[in-house]
Model the fold of this input.
Amino acid sequence: MRDADADADPDPLVAPEPGPPPVATLVRRVPVGAGAAGGLRGVFLHVHGYNDYFFQDHLARAVEDAGYAFFAVDLRAAGRSLRPGQVPHFVEDLREPATDLSVAVAAVRGLHPGLPVAVHAHSTGGLVAPLWAHAHRRQRLVDALVLDSPFLDLNSSWLNRTIATRVLDAVGPWSPLAVLSAAPSAYATHLLAANGGRWEFDPTLKRPDGVPVRAGWLRAVRQGQARFARGLDVACPVLVAHSATSGPDDLANPLLDEQDTVLDVEQIARLAPRAGPDVTIRSIEGGVHDLTLSADGPREAYLSSMLTWLDDRLGHLGRSGRRPGPSR
Done:
């Protein structure tokens, strides 16, 4: 699917970069069994994070087995949507991927009219999704929001975060493509089956050597995190899940397969309630950064907990996908 970025206001200090128009790719899984017979409970849309794309077939199968139609979206300049001439994952405003999310939700609602829609968003996607849901809270575009290890703050000290934000505000508008850091991802390296991990994925789309962090992108992230920290009013129920512990992103870390080595889980737990009035927080012992890619035990615990929560929160919705009573 293609869309023009109608919501983003261009920064007048930054000359637009020429390049191909943005593309977002909707990945569809056709349900079988109960779903094929018309017994669907709802629609589930997965949104990936940074240095990521949709490849988690096991997530799709679990969701389908639970009675939901499964979809995923590869956002602009990411995964299947990356085009020649584009900088991977680069945006200067989180309203850009949020526009892709709006288009994807409209598409899945068009394919399954009347069914409730749940958005499942990971890491940077887990920051974009609540900001998007808050911005569209009066339209009630989504009926439940699941955030898998959302990127709510930088994994660094308060002083470093403050300094970094001030530097980004000065540098970002003038040199948005400036590389701030570039390092291999021990997390992605460890996950890849070719390196002895448990998951098969395309290393050109989820790169063990990492994707450079650029000033314009990180500035957009910091602006989004600041907005989240001030408090949102997401109108639907929100589930925020994270690993029980964090650790260093280092192949020498003996707990690399049992911790979030990308984000600080204490920050996630502290900030999560600011998403809105109805937030549930779950800690998954032994989970990794993407809880759906954890070892068997924690992965099953996460999927079971998440699907049970969805059934509880969406089960009272009728075929219209709307809650009784006045909208907020």
Q: What stands out?
A: Confidence is low (pLDDT under 50) at residues 2-16, 318-328. Helices lie at 57-65, 95-111, 125-135, 158-171, 186-191, 215-229, 265-271, 296-314. Residues 25-153+231-314 form a domain with the Rossmann fold fold (CATH 3.40.50.1820).
